[in-house]
Amino acid sequence: EKIGVEFRGIFYHVFDFFACLGDLNIVFNTREYQPFVNQLVGDFRFVGASIPDGRDAGSMKFDFFNKKKLVYVSLGTLHNQDLGFYRAVMDALADEDLNVMMSIGRNNSVADLGPIPDNFTVENFVPQLEVLKRADAFITHGGMNSLNEALYFGVPVIVVPQQVEQAFNTRRLGRFGVSQSLGRKALTPEGIRRQVMQVLNDAAFKNSAIAYGRSLRQAGGYKAAASAIIDFARQRQPQQASAAQARRRA
User: Fold this and answer.
1) What is the CA radius of gyration of the chain?
2) Which residues, in sequence order, are bridge partners of residue 139?
3) Mean of the pLDDT values across residues 7-18?
4) What is the 3-state secondary structure (H, E, C) of 138-182?
5) pTM of the full predicted structure?
6) Is the pLDDT of residue 244 over 70?
7) What is the C-alpha to C-alpha distance for residues 30 and 45, in angstroms, rounded to an integer?
8) Distance (Å, whole) CA 108 – CA 21
9) Is 137 helix (H, G, I), strand (E, B) or coil?
10) Residue 57: per-residue pLDDT
11) Helix H or strand E segment including 223
């Protein structure tokens, strides 16, 4: 009652969580990414990725990296305990002329992976944005935040989906030439090496990622979202004031 919003009842289907239409709808992605965008009815603002200024800054030194290309590997924070996957990546890229930064999550032990190749740096946690600013390719689980953060900095992605949503994400981004998918059958050292070297050696992936990243940045991010909310609130204030006056007169 205080904010002038009518109670519309308790949801009766789980899909209501995903199909809730507001008077103002802020989408932290690009209009290009949205499937069937022309069928959306209502006020939708696509503000791109929300990348906080200065997040992760200064928390890791990178002066030990040489001028070789950098591959970043992370499976995120939830489904990151597949030690066999990390070992396969090491087998795949140990003899390649590049650097590999691998983040394995706080619940895994680096020692359990066995000998670490000389061109690998393995940590439980890394400042992801700072790594992505320097990366040439990103092997990821395909969560939307990780994908947007990589593409924001023009880094093409190689996706190892851990669930249905992440598989959809990589198929969608594949339309823009910025992602490759590594299915379970391809998670061998040979399959991983082939995908990584293809992305690194084909300039089209990098060029497409840079172009897509430009659209993510130009959408405005959290600052554009905040502005939209403030403008919406200011537009609603006269309506709410009129409604309050009407109630008082009644």
Assistant:
1) 22
2) 73, 158
3) 64
4) EEECCCHHHHHHHHHCCCCEEECCCCHHHHHHHHHHHCCCCEEEC
5) 0.82
6) no
7) 9
8) 40
9) strand
10) 73
11) helix 221-249
